[in-house]
């Protein structure tokens, strides 16, 4: 049996927490509040985000159980293999790769958007073309591309560097948010009266909240970066569930604080109706001046950096795991000769993400939808696998399975929630139905994945089950 390539155990608990929290928050908390309020109103967004976090916690129960028993890279890919076999493992892994790469692209595009707002005269030079009513400039493409290359370089250099940097980025982001919220709260011209009406007056309360809940897979996706680095934990995998729950709780609080911070300075409906490029930035600048805008820019930059860093790490580990199982080209499971990192996956992720800035701001909306589909499919497979490995009572037939009726119920509920999320995105007429651009891109990704699958299928299915379990899970034999 061929020797299995493994990753070094260098990830500390606070690094993993920073990866989960920083990736969960990302750029959305600082760029999207006015867009979300336009869908649901301030309280509608807060309620939707809290419900979304609670739903993710239900799904996280399955992740916590599986990480504890299978601390390997691959996450949803490895879990689908355990529960449903190699074909479903590929489906889960391929769609999860889509979700992760989309978020890397989102963060790079958001960085260019921030520069375009803060330094418009610098960025808005050398216009290339217009797409979807949005002008695309050479400068913003260069900004996004440079950020991707820098983070690719640091990720190739080593996990210790990126892990400690992630923690610093996350700490600065949280501190900046608390400072902003406090400054707005004590400002004499801001107040809770500006949050009225608390829901969007032209939409039903239920529909408004559901439209926010539907984006929960995208908003909180960073929590499932934890299983991607499970193989690299230098601590007990039993701690993973607690880290995930803490990250989700903190992320929900951050989203809520940023929505309230955006809504308090002036009547939120007026802000939404102006359709500003960066509503939160405009509000904070008018209320707190340049100092406030600088703090917000720092917070946004840290959110973007944590998202870029966290998802480049996770995508490369997912590709590494799939390649180790021989379903993707071998290059993805080769480690850098000096730094011992999966460098090919890092480079591949960055190259694909570099395409996003060429499509302007509209691509942000397309990519959010795409990433939600990818991660929701992986959520379903993970919850289904946990459900299949747990049993209701000792009377069940398989004595090797763990008896945990509450966890089994959560796993079943999580699987159903995942199907609901997928339905909201794919069923015509739903409040979160994919746009035509997202559907076209999704079809392209499926065709690309099918090509990979057909190319490697013969080799993939020729691997004996015991050997594949060893490659994916590190098990020496099936009975382990």
Automatic annotation (TrEMBL):
This is Amino acid permease. GO terms for molecular function: transmembrane transporter activity. GO terms for cellular component: plasma membrane. It is a multi-pass membrane protein. Keywords: Cell membrane, Membrane, Transmembrane, Transmembrane helix. It comes from the Bacteria. The keyword Translocase does not apply. The keyword Transmembrane applies. InterPro entries: AA/rel_permease1, APC_superfamily. The chain crosses the membrane at residues 44-67, 88-114, 134-154, 166-186, 206-223, 243-268, 288-320, 341-359, 365-389, 409-427, 433-455. Its main location: membrane. PANTHER family: AMINO ACID TRANSPORTER-RELATED (PTHR42770), MEMBRANE PROTEIN (PTHR42770:SF7). It comes from Virgibacillus dokdonensis. It is found in: Cell membrane.
